[in-house]
Amino acid sequence: MKILLLSMALMASASVAQAAPGFLYDCDMSYVKQNKGWMSPKIAFVLPGDGTVKVVDAVTLHFNKEPLLGQIVRENNKRIVIKWTIRNAKADNGKSFNHLDYRASISKTNGGVEVTMQPRHYDAGLRSPGSCRKRTQ
Fold first, then answer.
1. Is 96 exposed, middle or buried, given 0-12, 13-18 or 19+ CB atoms closer than 10 A?
2. Is the dihedral of CA 111, 133, 114, 55 positive or negative?
3. What is the DSSP letter of 120?
4. Average model confidence (pLDDT) for the chain?
5. What is the distance between the alpha carbons of residues 45 and 134, in angstroms, rounded to a whole number?
6. CA–CA separation, 134 vs 27, rounded Å?
7. 53 Cβ contact list (under 8 Å, min separation 6)
8. d(CA 92, CA 73)
């Protein structure tokens, strides 16, 4: 009986996936001035290794007051695509946006990134290329 329980415990522990070590992408963005403050010059994507991602940048912190939980839309050996939404944003001119939908596509091979932002229910948005460094510290 003890051998059976030990075998079952070993099988159960072997089937539990080990979490990948955490890291972040530290990204420097271009076209910041042209995007009129809706794109931060620096964006960090924190991936703690449990399948989640948090987005940290000046725009997110201004409207959300803390890092925002994003969603990994796609990930493979070449690319990771992350999306997040800022809710209840208000421009300096008083115009309100219920949802600002952001999307980042990061190349794992060269660190290139493209971030797009589009207010929900609008036909056009903004884009900014940049470069990211993968950091563990």
1. exposed
2. positive
3. T
4. 84
5. 10
6. 9
7. 45, 46, 47, 69, 70, 71, 72, 82
8. 31
Q: CA dihedral defined by 89, 39, 101, 94, rounded to 10 degrees?
A: 20
* DSSP string for 59-99: HHHHHHSS-EEEEEEEE-SSEEEEEEEEEEEE-TTS-EEEE
**Inter-residue contact 41 to 29 (CB < 8 Å):** yes
Q: What would the pLDDT profile of 42-79 be if each residue is shown by its tens digit?
A: 999 999 989 999 999 999 999 999 999 999 999 999 99
Residues 6+ apart with CB under 8 A from 13: none
**115, 133 Cβ separation under 8 angstroms:** no
Rounded Cα distance between 20 and 59, Å, is 29
CA distance 103 to 85: 9
Written as six digits, the tokens of 29 are 């963005």
Give pTM, 2 decimals: 0.81
